[in-house]
Design a protein that fits this description.
Layout: H1 2-9, H2 11-15, E1 25-33, E2 36-44, H3 45-51, H4 64-81, E3 82-86, E4 89-91, E5 98-101, E6 106-113, E7 119-124, E8 135-141, E9 147-153, E10 159-163, H5 172-186, H6 188-198, H7 204-226, H8 234-254, H9 261-282, H10 293-322, H11 325-351
Parallel strand pairs: 1-8
Antiparallel strand pairs: 1-2, 2-6, 3-4, 3-7, 5-6, 7-10, 8-9
Helix pairs in contact: 1-11, 5-10, 6-8, 6-11, 7-9, 7-10, 8-9, 8-11
Length: 353
């Protein structure tokens, strides 16, 4: 009976293991100049597959030939689904669109619109073709790279309007703060890693030490990766995150009282920081010129806020269960087995599947 009760507590989370990260993220940069508007829309390849499949032969791999062949279709779709109004007139791009791919598994579509505008409105209808929850971060800049306006768009709110004769209030800080909270609340792998560390704690100060070291570590690598100082490809980071979950789960099983958890947390937290940074990289935000400092700070603050919310709700339950003699002996082993199963699933999914 006790085993069933503990298992049920984690049944929902385990059923959601295929949703280890929030829905897709992408970005659009619009530069206003004397000739018109230059638009750069950035997607991850996974997002491109959602509305313009590139794997034509169905072998689950995208070759360079398939990528190149898909470029005209991708450019045409974006040009058709991006509705731009300049000075109260709907305009079409003056170019067919240039599509390129980078080493971060992103696709970039570049379009040019005329004429120069003092009033513009853009509606991103292609968001309806992407999974529910997808967000598109739009930045409007001048030719010096200075940001004029920013907005996070979604299927429910897919338009942005700007009158250059008026002062525009930026919502960048709020948007990225909310994005950070959402990311940690739906980042089941990060939460499960933190839970596997906290489930063995029995008092406030041991838990605070683990949370603090995890926060410091992932903030360091989030900052370094966000500024493109140190980066790792997601194909390396995501399996490593799964491996950290398995390691902690196994250690919980074979060691009755794991020691040195603060430094283990710090080391593994560095890896998880690269995972957090992938959110900003997916949106094409990776350098100081694009205004990385405010998004990185507010996103990280949102992550920490979400983390505090989750741990403040979880820790009292963990300590209450530890106080029950009939549950205490089986709590850590059963939870750790479930943790290892979830981590093993993610490891296989991210390396073989």
């Amino acid at each position: 009976m006790i085993r069933k009760i503990i298992s049920v507590l984690f049944l929902y989370a385990y059923a959601q293991i295929s949703l280890a990260h929030a829905p897709g993220l992408s970005s659009s940069d619009f530069v206003l100049n004397d000739n018109g508007v230059d638009a750069t829309i950035t997607f991850s390849l996974q997002d491109i597959e959602a509305f313009s499949p590139m794997d034509k032969d169905g072998d689950a791999e995208i070759s360079d030939t398939e990528r190149d062949a898909a470029k005209p279709e991708i450019a045409a779709l974006i040009a058709r689904e991006l509705q731009l109004t300049l000075n109260e007139q709907v305009v079409k791009p003056t170019t067919s669109g240039n599509v390129s791919f980078d080493d971060q598994n992103n696709a970039r579509v570049e379009l040019h619109y005329e004429p120069a505008a003092t009033h513009l409105r853009m509606q991103l209808s292609f968001l309806d073709k992407l999974p529910a929850g997808h967000k598109q971060f739009v930045t409007i800049k001048d030719t010096t790279g200075k940001s004029i306006s920013e907005k996070m768009l979604s299927q429910q709110d897919n338009a942005i309007e700007l009158n250059l004769s008026e002062t525009v209030n930026s919502s960048m800080f709020k948007d990225f703060f909310v994005l950070g909270v959402e990311h940690i609340l739906t980042g089941y792998d990060h939460l499960l890693f933190l839970f596997s560390l906290l489930v063995v704690t029995r008092n406030f100060w041991s838990a605070i030490g683990i949370i603090t070291f995890f926060t410091i570590a992932h903030s360091i690598t989030l900052g370094l990766a966000g500024l493109n100082i140190v980066t790792l490809p997601s194909t390396v980071v995501e399996p490593l995150i799964a491996a950290t979950i398995i390691y902690v789960g196994v250690e919980n099983i074979i060691r009755k009282e794991p020691k040195g958890r603060k430094w283990l947390t710090f080391s593994f937290g560095l890896i998880h920081g690269f995972g957090f940074a992938s959110v900003l990289q997916e949106m094409g935000i990776g350098n100081a010129e694009s205004g990385i400092l405010v998004p990185r700070f507010s996103f990280n603050l949102g992550v920490e806020t979400g983390q505090i919310i989750v741990t403040s709700l979880t820790l009292p339950v963990i300590w209450w269960l530890h106080a029950k003699p009939q549950i205490n002996q089986q709590l850590v082993p059963i939870c750790s087995v479930l943790v290892c199963m979830a981590g093993g699933y993610w490891l296989v999914e991210r390396t073989i599947l």
